[in-house]
Each structure stands twice: as structure tokens, then as C-alpha cells.
Amino acid sequence: MVSNEQRRRQLAREKFERQQERRDAERRKARRRNAVIAAGLAVVLAGGATAYATGALSGDGKKDSAADAADTPTPTKGPDPCKKPLPGSASTKQWKSEPSMSIDKSASYTMSLQTTCGAVGIKLDADKAPHTVNSFNFLAAQGFLDHSKCHRLTTQGIYVLQCGDPTASGQGGPGYSIPDENLKDARLKPDKSPDAQPGSVVYPAGTVAMANAGPNTGGSQFFLVYKDSPLAPSYTPFGTMDAEGLKTVQKIAGAGAQPGAQGNPGDGAPNATAVIDKATVTKS
Prior knowledge:
Layout lengths: L3 H35 L70 E7 L2 E7 L5 H12 L6 E2 L2 E5 L1 E6 L25 E2 L10 E3 L3 E4 L11 E4 L3 E3 L5 E5 L1 H12 L12 E2 L6 E9 L1
Antiparallel strand pairs: 1-2, 1-13, 2-11, 3-13, 4-5, 4-12, 5-9, 6-7, 7-10, 8-9, 8-11
GO molecular function: peptidyl-prolyl cis-trans isomerase activity
Catalytic activity: [protein]-peptidylproline (omega=180) = [protein]-peptidylproline (omega=0)
EC number: 5.2.1.8
């Protein structure tokens, strides 16, 4: 007999796999739409094809079955712990290809996210994930992340805050994709819980990793792990939050998440006004 907690974690993983399959299908459709545009046909796209990525991270908040809600408590809404965003609009810039490599892989880089809820400092792994760090170095210099909302918070089974989409729809990105990197990072330990899925690993609290819609489809969306989270080892870990940053994300999580698209609790937009006012990458 499995416990309620084990059942919740199992359901979270099953949902993760179903949502990943849906996102892969959506990306294939988006590619077909883009091909039509390239052929000169008058087709209007509603949004980008970059990932609303990562299982509990990639989903659209839809309830996949009645079982997804089994043994799941109704979330409560806490007070908003954050300030109003600074004046400004989210970026609409797009690029056709990944930026050329401009970072020094042997140097140290940090990314600072000045958010409405507090500062999040991130030590970047330029040596292990150079394409990813180079991309964020470029995007930060372009102001691409400034004034963007962190659009998704998961509070059950997997514990992450997802950011990096200026559209706040979960489907936005910079227009280009970057390759997966560092998927065998030593921080990702095998999940040894009683209900662990084959191959599952634990992304430890403090990890910063890329969202995606399948292999080598990373764009600008990333997630901040505020509590150890079991996932497939499919999401590039490219940095680690500092202590203050982890507390900031935990504060956002403490205010809870709004229900998803069909009322699914524990996986939706954060109740907190979580906005990146300014993102900068610094070489040290």
C-alpha cells in the first residue's frame, strides 16, 4: 500500500511525462507553421515555439485526468510578499540563430536577477554549460529578461519557479535554440525514494536549470529549484543560486500558486508579483 505522499509524487511524474509529450507535439506543429511562413504564405502565429518546458515545468496547467487531483490539497493563497514592478515593458526582440560564442569558458560569471521580491544571485557554470551561459550573457545585455514575469510555480511533487519568458505565456523565447549541456552534472544524484521512476535524478535546492520542449530545444526559459525535486536528467543545470536568492524564491513559493488552466492546484502562475526588473551577467 503506497502512502498519499508517494501517490502524489507518482502522479506528478506521470503528469510530467504526458505534458512533455504534448509540448513535443506543439513544437513540431510550430515548426510546420514556421515553414509555411518561410514559403511566403500568409499565416499569422500567435506566439513563439520555444519551450514552456520541464514536465511539471513544461505543462500548460491542464488537468490530465481525475487521478491528477487525487489526494491533492487545495492550495491557500498567502499575502503578496513582493513590490510593484519598475516601469517598463517586456522585450519583443527575436533572433534567428544562437549568438556567437563570446564568453571565456575558463572565467567566472554571475547572473544577478533584481526582482520585485528580492535579489537572486546565480553563480554560472561557464565551463560546464558554455552555450547556455553565453546565451544568457547575450540576452541580459540585450535587456531580454528585463520586466518579464516569472510565469509558473510548482508546489507539489516538483518545486520550481519558472522564468525567462517575456510573453509570460509559457511559450515565448528568443527565437533560437541552444543545445543541452551538463546533463551528467555531479549535483544530480539518483532519486532513491521508494517511488522513484527509472533514471530519475534529484535536482537539489538552489539549482538553476534550463526548461525545454525536448532534446536541444532550450531558449530563454529557465527554472529555479527551491526544494529538492525529482526529474528526468533532461534539463541543463547551468548555475547555483546564492543563499539570498534561494530565500527570495522560497518567499515567492510561500505565497502559493494560482490554479492551472483547468483548476489544477499547485502548478500555475505564482500568487506573488514575481517580476525580473533587471537581469545582468558579470564576468569576474
